[in-house]
Structures are given as structure tokens and as C-alpha cells.
Amino acid sequence: MLKVIIKHGQEGRRKLLKGAALVGDLVGMSLGPRGRSAIIKTKYSPPHIHNDGSTIARHIMLDDPIEDLGAQTLIEGAMKTDERAGDGTTTTAVLAAKIVKDYAQRIEEEDKNDTESGFISEGNTGTADVNRMAKEILDTGKLVVERLREQTKSLAKKDLKNVVSSSLGVLFPEFVEEITNAVEQVGSDGYVSVEDNWHTKYGVETELIKGMRFLGTYDSAYMANNKRRDAVFEDVQILVTNHDLESLAAFQRTYGDPKSSFIYELLQKGKRKLVIICNKAERPLIELLAQTVIQARQGNTNLIDFLVIKSPSLTTDQWRDVAVYCGAKFIDKNAKQQLNDVELSHLGSAKKIVVDEDEVNVLDGAGSKLAVKERVESLKIEIENEKDAAFKEQTKRRLGALQSGFAIIRVGASSEPERQAAKKKIEDAVHAAQCALEEGTIKGGGLALKEIAEELGKDHPMFNALMEPYNRIQRSAGGSLKIPDTVLDPLKVTRIAVETACSVAASLITSEVGISDKVKSLWDELDEKLYAQMGVADDFRQDENQEQRFKT
Fold first, then answer.
1. Interhelix angle 463-476/447-456, nearest 10 degrees
2. Do 93 and 164 reside in the same domain of the chain?
3. By residue range, what is the domain housing residue 531?
4. Which residues, at least 6 apart from 31, have a Cβ–Cβ distance to it below 8 Å?
5. Whose CB has fewer CB within 10 Å in the chain, the N or C terminal residue?
């Protein structure tokens, strides 16, 4: 049975705030272009070296359960910044931890006066007005955000490279050009996938995917039409359905009458290329279509050149994405929609479709701008609400595809730790660049917050907290780092970091009760078993015969 640990009053608050403050120290050492790294070893993986705050924060767990409660509360808040902006975890942790430290000291001083005067006994709650302090933190956060907005400059195209360079730091300057080009191509809402490159020992390779790409392949090698064994069709009509195709008769509105099929109508209009994207097609039909394709390509104008694409891995939502992008009606078997009801108006089209043995790439689909926009907005809401990281990434990829393209940056390195470190820095740089495109830039290197702190004055309760990111960067660089004007940070990242840090810190300083389950250790399990077997009332390790009992 798990034991519940409860700490309250001054002791509870001290432990909670101590754990939260420790997170800022552990994560903060990675801040800045010369930030330090952490080596992390988990139970089922080899050691990895990380220089980003989000990865370090995710692996922090303290021995004391109440201190860990404070730490995890701050970490949870910092990870929210990462979810919303894709960057800024370290800045959030550093700001929140410093706010917590400074206000904890104020609370201690007020409680100490109460204790010395005999107003309260040690360990109980004092008269410090923590709710007033919490409101003070939140109000200051709003003021700082207003000042940041006033400093903001729209991003000039030449400055995007500076944002990427500032985020990457001094370790990977050679990647700046490739990352900048990728972000420029896809824009602020586009999707950039950072993946492993197993074919090269070092460096990055960028691939821009125009149009919509998804998993699938042609259902017969006869449908390929170039030397690379790709199927390349231009100006095509497209049917999108998750049905399994058994025969062309399934499309006939009157069974046995080929002229009652939309395929006959298509041929009458002079359209001789038809792409059918389906779950799968049965072998007899594929063999028939292969013969049809051969004759059509030999010049028979009475036949349609078919391209049947099987995509059994698509979800219903992905099927709908493809249909919206192509301007087609999705014929959904789960909604009891039948193939013999298909009309010409249900078909979509695209300027080009390329299919290889693994993937389908549809270029310039004919979907209406309004329909695509509505689908994009729907996916953005899904991304905002999605909790699972894998589904969130999949939805981002779908979003990029609907917006006519996404980029893939493949990262190679001489060792696995270096590859993982490079991937994370590149991901942060991509997100920073996209945030800068979205909301503009402010002075980087902690200078924007430093200027606001100096404006508020040294007597302001949050002066030291706002100075902390700049001070951390300076300490990591030996205290003499000159930050040039070209160093830029995205407003969105810093804004969300300030908002989140103030929210978390305000909540933490009002907390004076910590309740946590005690994690059962091996000793706890041995205790319980020995108590049951031997009727021992106390901890056997305190017994004078403990060695013999342990052996037993």
C-alpha cells in the first residue's frame, strides 16, 4: 500500500519552492550560445548529450517527493511554452525559478517577523499576503508583455538568418543556410520535419516537398511510365475512396450497362486519365486494368489510362485531407456511400501526380481555397488541443501537406549523441524562425527583458527575475559576452515564456500544502513481506537480528 506524504505550512512551502528553484538552476545552465550540456542516461537507452532545456527538464526527478512536486509543477509549465511556441523552455524555467526564489525570500522575511514576535509558531502559516504577491507577479507579467510588443519589429527577410543563427548558437553555424531556406519555403505555418540521415556521417540535407505527400503505391508495375519506375500523370481526374475495388461494374448505376458508369461519361468528355486512390484493388481487376493501360498508351483513344493507388494505411481524416486538397468528394464506405453513386462532379483533379514504390505526391490539387482554409483551421485547433506528441506531429505534417508543401531536414553526425544534440538544436531553430515570421522579433540574448527591468528600476520586486536570462547567458560565457544588434529573438517565444513563468510562479508561491504518494522502494517491499511472514511490528532493519532475518 502506498504511503501518502503530506507537508504543510512553512515547511511545505519551503520544500515546494526549493524544488521549483532547483529546476531553474539545472535547466538554466543550457541557456545562451555558450550554454552547457547535460549527459542523460535512462534505463533503456545509452547516454545522450543534450544542450536544450526541454529535454533536460523532462528527465528531472528529485528524491524528496514534496520538492519533486514543486519541480514537476514548474517543469509542466515550462513544457507548455514548448508546446505553444516550440522553443523557450529554458527561458520559462529560468524566469519562473528566479521569481519563486525572490518571492520565497520575501515571504520568509514576513513570516520570520511573525515568528519572532510570537504571533505564530515555527512551521505554521504566517501573515504574508501571498495572494497579493501573486497578483503583483501576474500584473507585472502583463506589463512586460506590453513593453515587449512595443519593442517588436516585423521580420525582414534578411533577418530570418539571424534568428536561426541566434537559436543554433556557436555549435552548428554551418547549418544556418539550409535551415533558413527550408523555413522560407514553408512559411510560419508550414511543417518542417527534422529526421535522421543514416547515409551521411555529418551535415544536413534539405528536401522540399511541394504538394501533398502520403504513403501509397501503384497497384501494378504496368502503371509505371518512366525509367525510374515511377507513375507520373499530368492533368488528371482523381477519385478518392476507401472502398476495396473488385470490378469496374461496381461503378455502374445500372448493373450490366457500362454506359451508366461515370467512367464512360469521362471518356465522352475526352478525359483519358483517371487516378483512383483506394484502400486496395482485387487482383482480377488489376490484371484487367493493366491490359487496358497498355492498349491506351499504344494509342487506343477509346480506353482510359488508369492509375490505381492503394493506400491502406490512411486514416479516415487523412482520406478527407486528400479529397479536400484535390477538390474531390470522399466516397466513404463507413458512411455507406456506394461506388455506383459516383458522378463526374465527385471527382477532383491535380496538375500532376507522381507515385513511386513507397509514396504518392500530388501537386497543385484543385481543392477550393475556402475548403482548404477551413480544413487548415480545423487542423490548427486539433494541434492546439492534442496531448499526444506523436499525434501532434502527424497532424502538423498533415497541415503542411494541405498548405501545398513541407520540408524535411535530414541530420547526419559522426556519433549518435552528436546527432541527437544537433537534431534538437535544429528543431528549436526552426520553431524560433517560424515564430519570428508569425509575430516579429525583439532584441536577443536577454537584452529585451534587461531593458524592461532597467525601466522598472532595481526596487521593483521582479527586477532580478527579468535580468536573470541575460545574467545566465553572461555567466555561461565567462561574464564578458558582447551581444551584437544582429542577435534576435522571436517575440512569440519570449512573450509566451513570460506569460507562462508568471502564471506558474504565482501559483507556486500561494501553495503551502504538498501531498504526494511515496514511491515504494525495494526496502519497502521487503519490509511488507517480512512483516507478513514473521509478524514483525517495526522495521526489521532496526532489529538487532536484522542480518539473520534478511537472509531468511
1. 140
2. no
3. 523-551
4. 53, 90, 91, 94, 469, 472, 473, 476
5. N
Q: List b or e across 202-232, with b for residues whose CB sees 16 or more CB atoms inside 10 angstroms.
A: eebebeebebbbbebbbbbebbbbeeeeebe
| Number of structural domains in the chain | 4
Confidence of residue 535 (pLDDT cuts 50, 70, 90): low
Grid cell 497579493 in the structure block, residue: 132
Dump pLDDT digits (tens) for 345-403. 999 999 999 998 888 989 889 999 899 889 989 988 888 888 787 788 888 888 887 87
> Average pLDDT, stretch 112-139?
69
Q: For the whole model, what pTM was predicted?
A: 0.71
Cell readout for 213 is 505527400
Q: Give me the DSSP letters along 48-110.
A: EEE--HHHHHHT---SSHHHHHHHHHHHHHHHHHHHHHS--HHHHHHHHHHHHHHHHHHHHHH
Distance CA 91, CA 475 (A): 15
Domain match, 84 and 161 both: no
Burial class of residue 70, CB neighbours in 10 A (0-12, 13-18, 19+): buried
State how far the Cα of 415 lies from the Cα of 424, in Å rounded to an integer: 15
The C-alpha cell that represents 53 in the structure block = 532545456
Strand 280-281 to 244-245 pairing: parallel
Secondary structure element (H or E) that encloses residue 360, with its range: strand 359-365
Q: Are residues 337 and 230 in the same domain?
A: yes
All three cell numbers of 483: 551581444
Tell me: the pLDDT tens digits for 430-483?
Answer: 988 889 988 999 998 899 999 999 999 999 999 999 999 999 888 887 777 788
Residue 510 has what DSSP assignment? T
